[in-house]
Amino acid sequence: METAVKIKNLTIVLGGNFKALKNINIELPAHKMIGVIGPSGAGKTTLIRSIVGRLHITSGSVMVFNQPAGFPALRKQMSYMTQELSVYPDLTVRENLKYFEVMTEQPRKKLKESVINALEAVDMIDKIDNLVSSLSGGEKQRVSLAIALIGSPKILVLDEPTVGLDPVLRESLWKLFARLANDGHSLIITSHSMDEAERCDDLVLIRDGRIIAHSSPKELRQQTESRTIEQSFLKLVGEKR
Amino acid sequence: MSIRKTLATTARVMSQLRHDPRTLALLFLIPPVLITILKFVFQDEKHTFDHIAPLLLGIFPMIMMFLITSIVTLRERTSGTLDRLMTTPMSKLDFILGYAIAFSLLGFLQAIVTGVVMLGLLQVTVMGGAIPTIIGAVFASFLGTTLGLFISAFARSEFQAVQFMPAFIFPQILTCGLFITRSQMARPLQWFADVMPLTYSTDAMKRVTENPMWTTTLTRDLVVVGTFGILALILGSATIRRRE
To answer: Is A84 on the interface with B (CB under 8 A)?
Structure first.
């Protein structure tokens, strides 16, 4: 099976003294939906930012499709949705997408088509000419996600893409993620929500800068003899305390 | 670096301003209004006003461009958009040049509006003529833009960024020769003024007011201002980090 991300002995120190990640070793398979879960402050975002190549690695290595994370050639194959709403509120939805289309070097001829495809995927096509600042929180979130879909990247790294959305929308986005994985994309998604974690092919549990479990949701439940991911999470977190 | 991405960034910044007409109105109204007020402050001293107004044409746009660019790039740094951009193939130079071009264009328009009001409506006499006056003002606002881009890297919040204006620009205004001939200031202040960019842009405006001809010293002053601006751009792009 192809590996999307291979992390070896990764330690990341933030701000000079805070060890956000402590000697992490993990291999994440390609073409899957991988959920990264853990309590807040556990190191989920740090892990994700090291994969997209935005952090200085203190020691160890992060390889994405056999290239070092942050390698220039990788930037065209990867998209990153940050936890903040990284969209321009004083531009329209269309202007936002078009700008990121150019920045991700999409072919000029397909700009229009690709903007429409990305917006249709998040069901925002009817708001295409609205200013982002006039949208609701959930709608802004979807615009931010649409930007991550631009150009159909090989790997999508999404930090809390469904936080604060209503159940109907969350359902449709998880279906979209599953479809993307089915089409051969690799997805790495962080989440707070344990019932969402259930939908992932593979789960990575982080606590206190360490990986405390990595398996499929089903295996995780069996190992911990739990009925839900939430229970197994609590058991695992409790065990290591 | 790519021209397509740089210009797309310029266009994006311009669209952002287009959706914010109040900012645009303030940008084009404040400098002419201030100079008009000054006209009536010095209503009986036309000579003094003629002397000071062109100097202010170099200083007001510079201050405004400094403030606007430092806030807008700070916003980019804190909102996550720069974070996201730095994971795309965009280069840091595309980003910083895109901004510099957008705000220089704006500074250019602002200088024209203010210059036209000053020379036409307020009847300020400038020996060097209208075009050199506006060129001087454009250089000054380019300087304000690039300094703002650079300085925003050192601000963690909007509160700090706003205060960099008095902290960084005011000492230059006090010592640039606007209030008194520089040779009359305390020696250490003269040294300070000698290495500060605003000194040279004020000198340039002074020369335009006093000389009917374009002089080599005027060229030299503008080259110094331009060099400071380019230096600030290079330093500014160095403050953007691919990895943090």
So the answer is: yes
pLDDT 10s per residue in chain B (244 long)? 899 999 999 999 999 999 999 999 999 999 999 999 999 999 999 888 998 999 998 898 889 889 988 898 889 988 999 999 999 999 999 999 999 999 999 998 999 999 999 999 998 988 998 899 999 999 998 999 999 989 888 888 889 988 999 999 999 999 999 888 999 999 999 999 999 999 999 999 999 988 899 999 999 999 999 999 999 999 988 888 888 8
Contact A180, A157 (CB under 8 A): no
Do A149 and A79 form a contact (C-beta atoms < 8 A)? yes
A104:B81 CB<8 A:
no
Residue B92 forms contact with A (CB below 8 Å):
no
Residue written as token pair 């000492």: B171
Contact residues, chain A, for B84 at CB < 8 Å: 80-82, 86, 100, 147
In chain A, where does DSSP find H-type helix? 44-51, 93-103, 111-121, 137-149, 167-182, 194-197, 217-223, 229-239
User: Model's pTM, two decimal places?
Assistant: 0.90
Q: How far apart are CA A216 and CA A213, in angstroms?
A: 10
Give the whole-angstrom CA distance, residue B19 versus residue B60: 24
> What are the tokens at A192?
């707070």
ipTM of the complex: 0.92
Most B CBs within 10 A among A71, A78, A79, A90, hence the mutation to make, goes to A90
The Cα of B200 is separated from the nearest Cα of chain A by a number of Å equal to: 36
Q: Are B243 and A56 inside 8 Å of each other by CB?
A: yes
Task: Tell me how close the Cα of A232 comes to any Cα of chain B, in angstroms.
Answer: 33
* C-beta atoms of B83 and A84 within 8 A: yes
Question: How far apart are the C-alpha atoms of A163 and A43, rounded to whole Å?
Answer: 17
